């Protein structure tokens, strides 16, 4: 079997209506599949004004806004008309990208159609409750995720550290890697723009500490702002540059009144913003890979990050940046102060990170997933079935 014989039904809770790392990876995957002459059909909620045009044929799934996070939409069912569309498409593999209602319904449908189904893991949903005062719910969320992922033939993590965590959590027998790539035309040290920095009031010799991502609490905004306050008390010379939008922007601006907020950036503008920083600070523990970490490394920046899934697969402590225990404010401040005051250490770590990033190409990582699709389809055609888990 070859890639051109694949017929992939892809189910996502957010394919293009809000821009984030997960749905951009899915769109890149679809673009690659189409170049390999595979057939792909995407099923996802849609909105009137999406964040970007979708790659491939996108079929709308009924949805409702998520309470408290209305920018996201929760799919509510797969209507009969869509089920007919799926059957007419004649997929030979299902790919589910999120463990919500649409994902559960898609897995059930795949089993009824006797088709293999794989799941890609894009975020650590079990960690989200702690950011909203509901940490006691984490074991229940993890149990729900385990039930979902065990119904799949295989699951794919974006980093080896995340894959190992999924194995330890007993999520599935077959845990593979679908990592992420980097667009080196966009993210490279040559994008650094001192004139742009000056327009923001950042002097050429001022160390700029960057944050890149959605401005939501689960990105570790509280740890970030507490750490910056420690630097200010130590009178470490620096400037904070925040790239991104989100519902917590007002809160973040109030916590960091001296920071420069440039809002959402994309494409070459994002590449310029990242390269014009001097280091990236990523305290989040919710990522399974850390796209922004890889982008910063490609731009020649040292990265100070939490020891967490994703980051610890990318950052080599003491070489390309620093890995710090999650929530350790003093240690984060020490690491940032080191790079703020030692330009040579900053440049050396940036060069090392740029070298590591050169191994991540989108076509290579997407081909690895295509190879896994083919393996799983062949296994099912040969009579293979998902093995039941030996652990309850």
From TrEMBL:
One of its GO terms (molecular function) is glycosyltransferase activity. CDD domains: GT4-like. This is Glycosyl transferase family 1. Signal peptide: none annotated. Keywords: Transferase. It comes from the Bacteria. Residues 20-185 form the Glycosyltransferase subfamily 4-like N-terminal domain.
């Amino acid at each position: 079997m070859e890639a051109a014989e694949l017929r992939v039904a892809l189910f996502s809770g957010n394919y293009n209506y809000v821009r984030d790392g997960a749905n951009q990876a899915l769109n890149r995957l679809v673009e690659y599949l189409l170049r390999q002459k595979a057939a792909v059909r995407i099923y996802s909620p849609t909105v009137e004004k999406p964040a970007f045009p979708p790659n491939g044929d996108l079929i709308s799934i009924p949805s409702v806004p998520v309470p408290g996070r209305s920018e996201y939409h929760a799919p509510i069912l797969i209507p009969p008309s869509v089920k007919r569309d799926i059957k007419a498409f004649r997929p030979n593999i299902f790919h589910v990208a999120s463990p919500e209602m649409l994902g559960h319904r898609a897995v059930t449908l795949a089993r009824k159609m006797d088709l293999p189904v794989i799941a890609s893991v894009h975020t650590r949903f079990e960690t989200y409750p702690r950011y909203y005062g509901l940490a006691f719910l984490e074991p229940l969320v993890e149990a729900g995720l385990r039930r979902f992922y065990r119904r799949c033939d295989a699951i794919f993590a974006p980093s080896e550290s995340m894959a190992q965590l999924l194995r330890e959590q007993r999520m599935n027998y077959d845990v593979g890697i679908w990592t992420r790539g980097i667009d080196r035309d966009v993210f490279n040290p040559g994008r650094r723009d001192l004139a742009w920095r000056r327009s923001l009031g950042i002097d050429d010799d001022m160390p700029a500490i960057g944050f890149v991502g959605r401005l939501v609490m689960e990105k570790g905004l509280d740890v970030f702002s507490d750490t910056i306050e420690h630097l200010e008390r130590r009178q470490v010379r620096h400037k904070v540059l925040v790239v991104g939008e989100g519902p917590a922007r007002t809160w973040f601006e109030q916590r960091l009144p001296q920071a420069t907020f440039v809002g959402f950036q994309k494409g070459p503008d994002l590449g310029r913003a990242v390269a014009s920083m001097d280091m990236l600070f990523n305290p989040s523990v919710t990522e399974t890979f850390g796209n922004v970490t890889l982008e910063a490394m490609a731009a020649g920046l040292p990265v100070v990050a939490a020891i967490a899934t994703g980051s610890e697969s990318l950052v080599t402590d003491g070489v390309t940046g620093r890995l710090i225990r999650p929530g350790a404010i003093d240690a984060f401040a020490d690491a940032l102060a080191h790079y703020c005051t030692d330009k040579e250490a900053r440049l050396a770590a940036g060069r090392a990170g740029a070298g590591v990033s050169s191994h991540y190409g989108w076509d290579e990582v997407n081909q690895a997933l295509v190879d896994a699709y083919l393996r799983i389809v062949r296994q099912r055609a040969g009579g293979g079935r998902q093995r039941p888990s030996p652990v309850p």
